[in-house]
Design brief:
seven-stranded mixed β-sheet
Length: 275
């Protein structure tokens, strides 16, 4: 028979676990419903609006919707975001935005702050009924092993848009960063546009590659985004990729990063509604 005092920690642990499941699964459900509803509307707008106007509307509403979702997530107290550094890129002109890719939320975080970005996405996501219509309306680019995608990427940059391209090609599986692909360097060379590295740090492997959805992480989960070095275009793609990879590995492997210091106890921008 458990004494009352010894039962209290067990009850608290159980309540924390139950709250974690509620927050995670209700959040994913809300996100899925938001994407589905917007995709239905976007499918109609894709026929009703000219292509260029559709891109403007699609990217703006996607950015606003992601921003709302992240704000709702912060209200639960389970997730904290420090994304204010991205605001310096708004209105900065054409850039290839190249973040590392620790989780499924990475594109959501970046796009929530930057409303005029063409995102390079996996083809299966653009074909997905939940996300596809809104991605097509926004002029996002299919990444079929990056065949044909560089031309579209260059066209977007020359029209004045920014480009979101994860140089790892998929979520990180080898800490601190996977081997980089050559897509960002190739587009930079062809377009003459620099690569702006973005460093995404987190206290949790939640939604990383291979993370099972039934597994609830310790909370709160903290995310911080900071701007890294900007790389000018180069003719030698191999050298460019090697330098990018070395830089990201060095910055993300620093001992004073978010994982070691827990720096988001008081996040820079917890309400996500500045500016």
């Amino acid at each position: 028979m458990l004494l009352q005092g010894s039962a209290t920690p067990i009850i608290r642990t159980g309540l924390r676990a139950a709250y974690g499941y509620l927050v995670v699964y209700s959040g994913l459900l809300v996100f899925g419903l938001m994407c589905l509803i917007w995709s239905v509307v976007a499918a109609f707008l894709g026929y009703a609006l000219p292509e260029e106007r559709g891109k403007v509307v699609g990217r703006s509403i996607t950015s606003w919707g992601f921003r709302c979702y992240l704000y709702l997530s912060t209200l639960t107290g389970a997730i904290r975001f420090d994304l204010g550094a991205l605001d310096a890129l708004r209105g900065a002109g054409p850039l290839i935005i190249a973040p590392n890719h620790p989780s499924l939320l990475d594109a959501v975080m970046v796009l929530s702050r930057l409303p005029d970005v063409a995102c390079v996405m996996k083809a299966k996501l653009i074909d997905n009924p939940i996300y596809g219509a809104s991605a097509r309306l926004s002029g996002y680019i299919r990444n079929d092993d990056f065949i044909g995608a560089p031309t579209q990427a260059v066209q977007n940059l020359r029209s004045g848009s920014q480009l979101l391209l994860f140089p790892e090609g998929t979520r990180t599986t080898r800490a601190p960063i996977n081997r980089l692909k050559g897509g960002a360097a190739l587009v930079s060379k062809r377009s003459g546009v620099p690569i702006q590295t973005v460093l995404i740090e987190t206290t949790s492997p939640f939604l990383s590659k291979g993370w099972p959805l039934y597994r609830i992480p310790p909370m709160p989960i903290c995310y911080r985004v900071r701007l890294g070095r900007r790389f000018m275009p180069r003719d030698n793609l191999r050298e460019m990729v090697a330098e990018l990879e070395a830089y990201l590995a060095s910055e993300l492997g620093r001992p004073d990063g978010i994982d070691a210091a827990g720096i988001l106890a008081q996040p820079h921008n917890p309400r996500l509604d500045e500016r």
